[in-house]
Amino acid sequence: MAFNDLDLGERLDIAREGTAYFAQRLAVLSDADFDGPSLLAGWARRKLIAHVGYNAAALCRILDWAATGIETPMYESMEQRAREIDEGATLSPGSLRNLFTHTAAQLDEKWRILPDPAWTAQVRTAQGRMVPASETAWMRSREVWIHAVDLGNGGRFEDIPEVVLDSLLDDIVGVWRRKGEGAGLALEVDERRLVVVQEDAPPTDTVVGPLASVVRWASGRGAIGLSAGSDLEPPRWL
Ligand code: ZN
User: Both ends of the chain: CA-CA distance in Å?
Assistant: First the structure.
């Protein structure tokens, strides 16, 4: 089952659950913890929290685009995106908590009031792909579920819904395929799924484990709980 096979309402619910999960992890961080490292190399937690807040604001912009037909990109440029995150990271912990809560509520409101025909309107992602506005449910789900783990205070891939993990694996392998990476690599999810990354190259290395562990490894977040392939490095994803 892939995320986009679900009804729109279910997809939005999974995004909302991810927001709630991120909010729980955030709530148990002390203000001082904001200065600590996230699981993203070189990113303090405060920078990650700013990024998740500004991501919701950027998704609001493309939902406005879908609703009005007036083109409003997620970000003016990758430089503007990076600058906004860097500046946001200097906000006080209280302001960062507000930023997260406020932008998440705004996004939820945009979803709630978006007129039916606008869900299929084409909008552009930060990577330049044209997608229907309904794709924002997946774009947000990815961000909140993975980055909740990246906060590094107890969030676990095992808590992420299976359909999100399955679709993350599709996304990651899709990127590797487009970039021509991962020849000879196969991923085996315990007795349920085998993915040969480059189908024209016979597998020489296989990573085996439960779904959550395979996705954690493939997303570059370490080898925990794998039964084979722990010594392998995944190709870059993002
Ligand atoms: Zn992100």
Answer: 23
For 15-44, b/e burial (b = at least 16 CB within 10 A) is bbbbbebbeebbeebeeebbeeebbbeebb
| Beta strand spans in 49-198 (E) | 122-124, 130-132, 185-189, 193-196
Domains and CATH numbers, the chain: 3-155 (1.20.120.450), 157-238 (3.30.1050.20)
CA–centroid distance, 38 to ligand 1, in Å, is 12
Q: Rounded to whole angstroms, how far apart are CA atoms 29 and 148?
A: 12
* Model pTM above 0.90: yes
Q: pLDDT tens-digit profile of 95-140?
A: 999 999 999 999 999 999 999 999 999 999 998 999 999 999 999 9
From ligand 1's centre to the CA of 153, what distance in Å?
A: 17
Distance (angstroms) between ligand 1 centre and the Cα of 8 equals: 22
